[in-house]
């Protein structure tokens, strides 16, 4: 196998690759869709809300990119498998995947987390990434042969998370799945990494701000760069990890947090 990264001038980071993105209707997932298409990937975008998916798909196409979409709830095992298979049906292969989709639960101490909320965040934020990774590995193995997967974690997974204990726990478990998958599938040439965003201006953090007024400013105060991230900045990190430029990187949980955890 040729392990030398392709650095030909004029080629995008993801030129020639088929990419599958979950949670692609808004926020970081939508930013990733725009960026990955600019970097040369053909896309299948997945999320629960068709109107949002359709809007992002049309935006990518209007900019000259190649994209389609499929409605997918990460809590539905059959739907997850069907979505990944759809990428292969459309493009004949799967090379890379960004598992970005996640659910949010109301913030609060652990004893105030409703069991239904805990079960939901488990089904979407932990079982969902496990299901989709299994399907993606099978698709990459059967078509492209080698490839890369990036899971979206959180800096909230790297230590105590008293405001979002269930969310943090699921994301920490995703880190473990990422590392285990990297060891398991590395010998086949399938790399698996994660990004761990800090405070990022998405719909999720705006919802959290409503429940905890002043949250965004508190996060900025603990961030050496002094600001929140734009969703596109997280997408840039994911694109690099999925690209051949990161050909010797696997099992990493890359903090993209403006120094917040230093």
Percentage beta strand:
5-15%
Query: Unreliable segments (pLDDT under 50, ≥5 consecutive)?
Result: 1-9
Order of helices and strands: EHEHEHEHEHEHHHE
General form: globular
Number of structurally distinct domains: 1
CATH class: Alpha Beta
How many helical elements? 8
CATH-assigned fold name:
Rossmann fold
Total count of strands: 7
CA gyration radius, whole angstroms: 17 Å
CATH superfamily: NAD(P)-binding Rossmann-like Domain
Q: Which CATH architecture would you pick? A: 3-Layer(aba) Sandwich
N- to C-terminal separation? Answer: 38 Å
* DSSP helix fraction: 40-55%
Tell me about the biggest sheet? Answer: 7 strands, parallel
Widest sheet, order of strands: 3-2-1-4-5-6-7
Describe the structure.
- The chain is α/β, with parallel strands linked by helices and 262 residues long.
- The chain has helices at 27-38, 50-62, 77-91, 115-142, 165-185, 203-211, 215-221, 231-242, and strands at 18-22, 42-47, 66-71, 96-99, 147-152, 190-197, 253-256.
- A seven-stranded parallel sheet has the order 3-2-1-4-5-6-7, sandwiched between helices.
- Helix 1 (27-38) runs parallel beside helix 2 (50-62), helix 3 (77-91) runs parallel beside helix 4 and helix 4 (115-142) packs parallel to helix 5.
- The model is unreliable at 1-9 (pLDDT under 50).
Keywords:
single chain; seven-stranded parallel sheet; 262 residues; alpha/beta; 7 strands; Rossmann fold
Describe what is shown at a glance:
The protein is an alpha/beta fold and 262 residues long. 45% of the residues lie in helices and 15% in strands.
């Amino acid at each position: 196998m040729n392990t030398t990264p392709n650095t030909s001038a004029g080629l995008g980071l993801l030129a020639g690759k088929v990419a599958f993105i979950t949670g692609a209707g808004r926020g970081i997932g939508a930013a990733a869709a725009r960026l990955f298409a600019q970097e040369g990937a053909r896309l299948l975008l997945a999320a629960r809300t068709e109107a949002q998916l359709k809007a992002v798909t049309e935006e990518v196409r209007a900019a000259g990119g190649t994209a389609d979409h499929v409605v997918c709830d990460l809590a539905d095992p059959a739907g997850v498998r069907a979505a990944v298979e759809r990428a292969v049906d459309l493009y004949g292969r799967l090379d890379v995947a960004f598992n970005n989709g996640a659910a949010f639960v109301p913030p609060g101490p652990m004893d105030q987390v409703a069991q239904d909320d805990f079960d939901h965040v488990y089904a979407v934020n932990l079982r969902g990434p496990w299901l989709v990774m299994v399907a993606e590995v099978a698709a990459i193995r059967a078509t492209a042969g080698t490839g890369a997967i990036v899971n979206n974690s959180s800096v909230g997974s790297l230590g105590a998370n008293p405001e979002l204990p269930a969310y943090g726990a699921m994301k920490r478990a995703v880190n473990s799945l990422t590392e285990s998958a990297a060891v398991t599938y590395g010998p086949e040439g399938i790399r698996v990494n994660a990004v761990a965003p800090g405070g990022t201006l998405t719909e999720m953090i705006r919802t959290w701000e409503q429940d905890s007024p002043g949250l965004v400013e508190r996060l900025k105060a603990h961030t050496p760069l002094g600001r929140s991230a734009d969703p596109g900045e997280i997408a840039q990190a994911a694109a690099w990890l999925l690209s051949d430029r990161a050909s010797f990187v696997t099992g990493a949980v890359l903090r993209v947090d403006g120094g917040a955890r230093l």
